[in-house]
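FORM 7B: Structural annotation worksheet

SECTION A. Query
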Amino acid sequence: MNKKSIIYIVLVIVIAGTVGYFYLSNYFDSEEDEINKIYIAADFPSALEKVEQGRMSQEILNLSLEDLNKQYRKLQEGDHIYIRWVNVGILKKRFDDYQGAEKAWLRATDYAPEQTLAMGNLADMYLFDMGQYEKAEEYYQKVLSMNTSNYNYYVGLASLYRFNMTEKAHLIEGIMTEAAEKNPAEAGAYYLYLAGYFAREGNDIDKAKYYSDKTLELNPELEDQLPKL
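SECTION B. Predicted structure
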């Protein structure tokens, strides 16, 4: 390798390192600024709009702002970092600040990647609030690979395929029967879901009857929730 090539490679490494340094510096500076800021209602125009439209009371807005600033104070103190970021995300979602909620839950996930609460919140928000279906699928799959006992996450992924990514609707039965096998104490709830699905969008009365029968075998108290066939 000649001298000119070596100098070129060194320059590339230096430039890449400098860009990375400034990127990370800006990231951490913005996080520090966010934590140290005192938030007011004007920071959340969507929340103010909800108050004007009667979808949120002024009292709830005020209490939520107070709680948000409390969560940030606790972050400054290094107190229960993961749950503080989860709480920040919940409060910002309440204000319809979905990007702020996303950022908070991603920070929680970065801080404690073995925990699933923030991941599940992200999956639900991507599906039901932001319409980002590929991200919703990614996070439901992540959380279910770590937590196989949460009914809501299975229903979330099944709902995604049922109503949005309908080209994958054929996966619903497998998802819910696997969930029933992994959670035998709640298997009736998963079979109930399948009975309703096949009676409606699934368009298969035989399977609807089959899963209705399995539901009743496990939990007769669910009879009034079964589809009328």
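SECTION C. Observations
The radius of gyration is 24 Å. Residues 40-115 form one domain.

SECTION D. Sign-off
Analyst initials: ____
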